[in-house]
């Protein structure tokens, strides 16, 4: 990029996509600042395990110069799926891991930590909530902070997830409920305390599904298994059921009723989890989600193409970040770079959102009408 000075680039959100973009920019000699509303890197748990695909997540890690460090942490054996019969827990199908370890698993927290540790000191400004952005007539963008202050940048990148504060500058789209809810729970020290469940899950992921509901369990690192009770229901299902989500015993009792008739070894997930139940309604952006180009602002990851959690979102977010960083270095102006990036990212996201919607239907089959 031919410029008298480095462009001022702000990334909103210290998730996987935003951090990948920042890392690649720094690898290529550019300066960047990441603004994150959370108080620190350890302000909250970072979620479960992710499989990194060769042509997306791993390609982005390679561009970031972190692929070897990723492989040192990743679990190739985690790329395994076991599908069980819901009524008998009999093994119906098993696949992976691939011989070449093509989609190794890694805990999201470990991957985020790897990216954070790779950045120059001070890159991430913690506890800096963003309230919105205002594109300016000169092609720059004003970033508005929650404390009432503001700062102008040549480019503001919205990497701030499902409920992005940056997205309204480009699009009126808002996430909508998919009709599917995940209730998350977990198990600690599985190979010593929950041996039967550990054998049931295997080295990677386990799926059992019936009409409108499924159970998914996934190996994480350090002997932890994270489980998801998935079902189709109104977003306020707990209100109709008279269940207080803060009453863990009531949630457990209701879920056991919901999965009545399932094999007892699968209902173990509902009866004996070590961790509490966390209600997670699944939202997606309308598909296709596109926008007219506006200078000074763009989106990546969930802010641009929120989709169901079926293995595509994190990978695409990281590839978005890498592609945008490369465009910002190779194109002659910031605006040319953003146009080039959006011309690749938006069509790619349309294909991915279609595939992820089909993936959710496979994961939680709907009752035939």
Characterization of the model:
By secondary structure, the chain is of the alpha/beta class. The protein is 34% helix and 23% strand. The protein is globular. This is Flavin-dependent monooxygenase. NADPH binds at residue 44. InterPro entries: FAD-bd, FAD/NAD-bd_sf, TetX_monooxygenase.
- First CA to last CA: what distance? 56 Å
What characterizes the major β-sheet? Answer: 7 strands, mixed
CATH topology of the largest domain: FAD/NAD(P)-binding domain
Residues in helices, as a percent range:
25-40%
User: What's the total helix number?
Assistant: 12
Over the alpha carbons, how many angstroms does the gyration radius reach? 21 Å
> Based on helices, strands and strand pairing, what is the structural class?
alpha/beta
* CATH class membership of the largest domain: Alpha Beta
Give the number of domains.
2
CATH homologous superfamily classification of the largest domain: FAD/NAD(P)-binding domain
Protein name: Flavin-dependent monooxygenase
Function: An FAD-requiring monooxygenase active on some tetracycline antibiotic derivatives, which leads to their inactivation. Hydroxylates carbon 11a of tetracycline and some analogs.
EC number: 1.14.13.-
Catalytic activity: a tetracycline + NADPH + O2 + H(+) = an 11a-hydroxytetracycline + NADP(+) + H2O
Key terms:
single chain; 369 residues; FAD/NAD(P)-binding domain; 2 domains; 12 helices; 34% helix; nucleotide-binding; TetX_monooxygenase; NADP; flavoprotein
Task: Give the SSE map.
Blueprint (H helix, E strand, L loop, with lengths): L8 E4 L3 H12 L5 E3 L13 E3 L5 H7 L3 H7 L7 E4 L6 E5 L9 E3 H11 L5 E2 L4 E6 L5 E5 L4 E4 L1 E4 L17 E12 L2 H4 L1 H7 L3 E6 L2 E7 L5 E8 L4 H5 L6 H11 L5 H8 L6 E7 L12 E3 L2 H4 L7 H18 L3 H30 L6
Parallel strand pairs: 1-2, 1-11, 2-7, 4-13, 11-17
Antiparallel strand pairs: 3-6, 4-5, 8-9, 9-10, 12-15, 12-16, 13-14, 14-15
Helix pairs in contact: 1-4, 1-11, 2-11, 11-12
């Amino acid at each position: 990029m031919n410029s008298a000075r480095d462009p001022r680039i702000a990334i909103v959100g210290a998730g996987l996509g935003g951090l990948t973009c920042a890392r690649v920019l720094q690898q290529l000699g550019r300066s960047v600042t990441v603004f994150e509303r959370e108080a620190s890197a350890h302000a909250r748990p970072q979620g479960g395990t992710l499989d990194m695909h060769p042509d997306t997540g791993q390609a982005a890690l390679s561009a970031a110069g972190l692929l070897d460090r990723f492989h040192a942490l990743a679990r190739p054996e985690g790329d395994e799926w076991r599908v069980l019969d819901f009524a008998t827990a009999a093994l119906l199908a098993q696949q992976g891991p691939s011989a070449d370890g093509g989609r190794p698993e890694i805990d999201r927290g470990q991957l985020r930590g790897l990216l954070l540790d790779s950045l120059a000191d001070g890159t991430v400004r913690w506890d800096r909530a963003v309230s919105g952005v205002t594109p300016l007539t000169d092609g720059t963008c004003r970033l508005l902070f929650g404390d009432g202050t503001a700062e102008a940048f040549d480019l503001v990148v919205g990497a701030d997830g499902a409920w992005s504060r940056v997205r309204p500058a480009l699009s009126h789209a808002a996430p909508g409920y998919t009709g599917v809810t995940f209730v998350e729970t977990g198990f600690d020290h599985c190979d010593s305390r929950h041996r039967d469940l550990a054998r049931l899950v295997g080295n990677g992921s386990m799926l059992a599904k019936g009409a409108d509901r499924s159970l998914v369990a996934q190996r994480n690192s350090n002997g932890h298994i994270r489980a998801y009770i998935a079902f189709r229901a109104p977003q306020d299902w707990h209100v109709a059921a008279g269940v207080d989500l803060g009453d863990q015993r009531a949630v457990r009792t209701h879920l056991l009723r919901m999965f009545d008739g399932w094999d007892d070894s699968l209902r173990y997930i509902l009866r004996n989890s070590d961790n509490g139940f966390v209600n997670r309604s699944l939202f997606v952006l309308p598909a296709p989600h596109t926008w007219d180009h506006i200078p000074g602002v763009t989106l990546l990851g969930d802010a641009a193409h929120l989709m169901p959690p079926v293995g595509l979102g994190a990978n695409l977010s990281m590839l978005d970040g890498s592609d945008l960083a490369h465009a910002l270095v190779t194109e002659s102006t910031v605006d040319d770079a953003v146009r080039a990036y959006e011309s690749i990212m938006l069509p790619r996201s349309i294909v991915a959102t279609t595939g992820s919607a089909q993936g959710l239907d496979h994961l939680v089959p709907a009752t035939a009408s």
